[in-house]
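dude i think i finally got it to work??
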Amino acid sequence: MTTERNNENPQLISYNLLRQLIGLLGIILPILLIVGAFYYGNCEIVQSSISDYYHTKMRNILVGVLCAVAFFMFTYKGYDIRDSIAGNLACVFALGVAFFPTGVDTLSECAEQCIVYEPWIKTVHFTFAGLFFGTLIYFSLFLFTESKTDKEALAAPKRKRNVIFKTCGYVMIACVLLIALYFFYLQEKFPELQKLNPVFWLEGIALWAFGISWITKGELILKDKNKNV
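look at this
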């Protein structure tokens, strides 16, 4: 049985701060990669995907942020066993994305070196990435929208937060489906789309949706009026 949260509960503060940190990392990652590559790598072009920044001077930043997200997910326990399991899975998937990098077929002008991995490593990378986003979608649509008390369910801030959670979840679903559509159909049918870097921007939008969902759950916005946390 879950006890009602209150201002005296020290876990509430740590959980909300943890959620905010996780969300902020997701929001800043795409921006950090673009700006960092521009200033420190003299890279004036956006890479084809977030993962492609592994081959630039932003490699350590990309891996570091993913590892930080993984660590925070591992320490996140939430309210019941489902939160803990989902957090642990997200941790594993984030580490998989970080340590099984995507390979590249051609040398980008921003790349320090072109590392061509075995095809199975790239497959593992995309599998982990898909599972990671799948877990984030599960958080937004099914875990974050639950209410622990009838009073909380009726509260206006909670109802507004649920709208944000569901919107972010559906945005992430749309981005994942569009990325799959691009790889399996649009990339070959419309090769000129590659110049627009659709995968990077769809991944970026999905990360922003993920981040907004988590900072909302951490009540950085739409905070309950009767909580001083």
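The chain has seven helices and no strands.
im so relieved honestly
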